[in-house]
TrEMBL record:
Domain named BLUF: residues: 57-147
Alphabetical list of SUPFAM superfamilies matching this protein: Acylphosphatase/BLUF domain-like
Coiled coil: none
Protein name: BLUF domain-containing protein
PROSITE patterns: BLUF
Pfam families: BLUF
Signal peptide location: none
Length: 186
């Protein structure tokens, strides 16, 4: 059985990891920094952190049309369910809505993401579900079990164009959530 670390030992361990990896390809990204912070606070054990890092992150970026025009109450219900489901299954992400269209990124273990995405593809609230990107990648939305935002139809179109071209810098996106999405997929 591993011995418990003191708060000082946790702090020093995190500082050493950061110092050893600074300016290297191993430097902690947002998700890894969040885990290190939780470890430093004593919220995660070393074994839990190692397990979370080893599980890998799978991402799906898709867009779809809403079946009809969902009311605010229907969107709120969808978000309430999504946030609870995602938190229980280690899924994070971002859902954007614009004039009857959804743009969403989901990230978590491959099994959890593929199960949820299959459910979304069968969900009668969606039509014309189209995968934009799918595969492994770093966790970018770790702080959101499911963030949500409204964007203009023009911004949504710009984001879809930007994630599909090699040089997205030519596309101007001003919404902070769309910028986060583009940084994750470009």
């Amino acid at each position: 059985m591993p011995f418990p670390l003191t708060p000082g030992q946790r702090r020093r361990a995190v500082a050493m990891v950061v110092a050893l990896t600074t300016n290297t390809s191993l430097a902690p990204q947002r998700y890894e920094r969040q885990l290190l912070t939780q470890f430093e606070r004593g919220e995660l054990t070393l074994e839990q952190m190692e397990s979370l890092l080893a599980s890998g992150v799978h991402q799906v970026l898709y867009h779809s049309r809403a079946a009809g025009h969902p009311t605010q109450a229907e969107l709120d219900a969808l978000l309430t369910w999504s946030r609870a489901y995602n938190a229980a299954h280690g899924i994070t992400g971002l859902l954007l809505y614009s004039d009857g269209r959804y743009l969403q990124v989901l990230e978590g273990t491959e099994a959890a993401i593929e199960d949820l995405y299959a459910h979304i593809q069968r969900d009668t609230r969606h039509s014309q579900v189209e995968t934009v990107s799918r595969g492994p990648g770093p966790r970018r939305f770790a702080e959101w079990s499911m963030d949500f935002g409204y964007v203009s139809p023009h911004q949504l179109e710009q984001a879809l164009i930007a994630v599909q071209i090699p040089e997205p810098s030519a596309v101007l996106v001003t919404d902070a959530r769309l910028q986060a999405l583009l940084q994750a997929f470009t």
